[in-house]
Amino acid sequence: MSVIDSAAAPASATQTLQHVVSHMVEAVNRARFVEMPFWHLEMTDVFPADLYLRMRAAMPEAREYRALKGRNKVNIKADGTATRIKIDLYPEYIRHLPAEKRAVWALVGKALHAPELKDAFMRRLAPGLERRFGSDFMKVDMYPVPMLTRDVAGYKIGFHTDTKWKGITVQFYLPEDESINHVGTRFAQRKPGGGGFENSHRMSFSPNTGYAFAVGTDTWHAVDTVGPEVRTRDSILHTYFVDNTASLKIRNRSKRAANFVMNEVRHVGR
User: Class assignment of domain 15-50+112-268?
Assistant: First the structure.
């Protein structure tokens, strides 16, 4: 069995996995579809309640993540520390976690890779996907890349629409309680002529909630500077990369392999 296939899994994994996937698909299906400032879904009760508690209890320690540097290393402070760190939720990345944590995140990672979940997002985000890919948008292959991320004081990202490589952007919020609900993602419209933004809408960074949108030229979103009152801003960034040509398939899988090598090198050096 390869490293990629050898992650630990909880007992009765198949039954448990199906329960989690079904719950998440239902969360997508009943999510509120919001048209302003651009088309997006707003989800609640994303994960089964008992699993969410297990996820909170199984949060990795800071040393178990690696830096997500961002473009031009914008997430790296002058002292070399990072304001955003990540763990890719693939079996080969989480294999270094303690067994009890690994079992939880292996289950979550498998659920996020479920084709049923991808199809649910694509159906609910039909307007944006059809505008970009045409009427056959459901036939466009998407490659899921889920990351457990942690932001700390100083993290920020200005308004951007996401790269063309991405088809769907999803984020699940994982706070312990409502105490930092003011640090949610902001959505906005570009003012006519490009002079700033308007109709700003901030998501509440509330437990077990999330959003999703089909990436387009108008999907402007940002995160204001995270203040010192925030110990950790935990979330799952779940991206579906466009995967409908041979070159894109090679690109997506090569990035996964390269990240695996870097992750292994980091662990060897510890």
Answer: mainly beta
